[in-house]
Structure formats: structure tokens, C-alpha cells
Design brief:
This protein has a domain of 197 residues. Helices cover 41% and strands 19% of the residues. It starts with 8 loop residues before the first helix and ends in a 25-residue tail after the last helix. The relative contact order is 0.17.
């Protein structure tokens, strides 16, 4: 599934330059104008969120759309700040005991809600090295800008690039798990159309990434859903939910993750950053949520 990317390297450099000269809060103010631009000139992005808000029963007004885009822009900026000056951001842990279940390795389930990329540096000291499984699809010039800024704890976070092919990626995942390290995988977005599992989400049947649940099931590894939620300027809450896999089917494990994600989304609806029609990936059967 192709997801259009917005922005360019020059824009990122300008924002970082403004931050260096004038500080964080001035950039946060500037991002209001970035969000306003999207409200006025990117109706396609708003349209992509329409069914999501309809499923939540929330009217997608210009104000709601503005706040959604502003938080998204802030999460992108904070991703850079986590590399440049990680102490600028603060994190509060929720369900820390579930997070510590990863001390002997396991699988972290990431989602496109909140600012997961901002928190990687804060996890290294307490868990084994983390390998993030993702497709390095960021525009090449933006990717270069990101790599120009070295996160202080970068050595504890490595990328397993899906572009190298499934065989190479699977070998690296298996090696990491056998070494009792942590593998982080995006669970809410389909990566491979042949590796999906169907779950209920906000009253509809949708398909999500099957791989993390299948790997945890086969390797008998700890599975922890992790969410990094923006609660205020420069402040994030890390929410951890361990998912028990013993005596459960793959369908049950995947649905439990989606139930947790649904609860998070209902509290923080404007931090959902899947900017495409999530409910029309294929024809899906509408179900009656009142019967659940």
C-alpha cells in the first residue's frame, strides 16, 4: 500500500534552524500556520480521515482537522528533537511493569497513533537493544536530514529495513529474538497484502499486519502493545499493555491488540496518523457494534 508523503528536506532544515535560533515554543507556534495551510489547501488529506471520524461518531470540522494536523506536525518535529536534544522532551510511563516484561527480549507492537519515534531513545537503558522493523520509505532527502542528527542513544536502536526483502528481514528478526533482544513492529498497517489478519475495529472488519502476532505465536515471545501519546507541549505518555498469548489463537491475539488500540483512540482520536481510508482497504462487512 502506497502512502503519499508530504514535506521536503528544505522545510525540515528551516524548522530545525528556527528551533536552534528561537527555541522550541516558537517552532510550536509556527506549526499552527503549517496546520492552517493543510486545512486550506489539502482537502484530500481531510477526505482520507473522513471515514475514520465517521466511525468514531465525531464530526470532522475544520477545527478538528486543524488540531489533528497540528499534533501530527508536532510529532514530526519532536522526532527530530529526540535526536538533537532528547532531554527537551519528557515521558511518563503507564503500566511500567508490562514494559519490563521485555527485559529478556520480545516483541513491541507499534501503531500509527501518537509519536512512537520520539520515545526510542528513552527505552535503551532498561531493555535489550531494539530492532525496529519498517520500510525505509521516507523521501531520500528527508532521510538524509534525519541521519545528519545523531540521537544520543542511537546505538541501542537499529532498523530492519523491509526493502531488503522478506528473507533477509526474517533472518534478522529471528536472530534478534534468539539473542533475547527486542523487535518492534508496526501492527496497524498492512505491509504485505499476503500477510494480513482480519479484526474488528470501530464497528467494521479491517485487515492489519499479521506478522508480529504470527512471530510472537511461533517463537513464544512476550508481546507488548506500546503507545506514545502527546499529552502536552514537550510531554508524552508511554502506555504499555502486555498481551498474553498462551492458549490463544492468532485471531484472538490480534483482536486483543485491536481492542487496546481502540480504547486508546477513543481517548486520543486526533492522534491517529494513518492518512488514508483505513476502512476501505478492501470491501468489508459492516457489523453492528451494539451486538458486541
Amino acid at each position: 500500500m502506497g502512502v503519499k508523503q508530504y514535506g521536503n528536506a528544505l522545510g525540515h532544515k528551516i524548522i530545525i534552524g528556527i528551533y536552534t535560533l528561537l527555541g522550541y515554543r516558537f517552532v510550536a507556534f509556527i506549526l499552527n500556520f503549517v496546520a492552517l495551510y493543510y486545512v486550506l489547501f489539502t482537502p484530500s488529506v481531510k477526505e482520507s480521515l473522513k471515514s475514520y471520524y465517521e466511525h468514531l461518531g465525531i464530526k470532522l470540522t475544520h477545527r478538528v482537522y486543524f488540531n489533528h494536523i497540528k499534533l501530527f506536525a508536532l510529532s514530526i518535529f519532536d522526532r527530530f528533537i529526540s535526536r538533537i536534544k532528547p532531554e527537551e522532551l519528557s515521558f511518563v510511563r503507564e503500566n511500567r511493569e508490562d514494559f519490563m516484561a521485555l527485559k529478556d527480549g520480545g516483541i513491541v507492537l507499534l501503531s500509527h497513533i501518537g509519536g512512537w519515534a520520539t520515545a526510542a531513545h528513552s527505552l535503551k537503558a532498561e531493555i535489550p537493544p531494539m530492532h525496529i522493523v519498517m520500510r525505509e520509505s521516507t523521501k531520500e532527502d528527508i532521510n538524509k536530514v534525519e541521519k545528519d542528527y545523531k540521537r544520543e542513544n542511537e546505538s541501542g536502536v537499529k532498523i530492519i529495513d523491509l526493502n531488503q526483502g522478506p528473507i533477509a528481514a526474517n533472518i534478522q528478526i529471528a536472530n534478534a529474538l534468539m539473542n533475547k533482544e527486542v523487535v518492534a513492529m508496526m501492527a496497524d498497517r498492512v505491509v504485505d497484502a499476503s500477510k494480513t489478519i482480519e479484526v474488528e475495529f470501530l464497528g467494521s472488519k479491517v485487515k492489519i499486519n499479521k506478522n508480529p502476532f504470527d512471530i510472537a505465536f511461533r517463537f513464544k515471545k512476550v508481546l507488548v502493545a506500546t503507545f506514545v501519546i502527546n499529552v502536552a507541549v514537550k510531554e508524552y505518555k508511554l502506555i504499555f499493555e502486555k498481551i498474553e498469548i498462551e492458549n490463544k489463537s492468532l485471531d484472538e491475539i490480534a483482536q486483543e491488540y485491536m481492542n487496546i488500540l481502540t480504547n486508546i483512540i477513543k481517548i486520543y482520536p486526533n492522534q491517529w496518523y494513518n492518512f488514508y481510508d483505513f476502512f476501505n482497504q478492501s470491501k468489508q462487512r459492516k457489523i453492528d457494534v451494539n451486538k458486541q
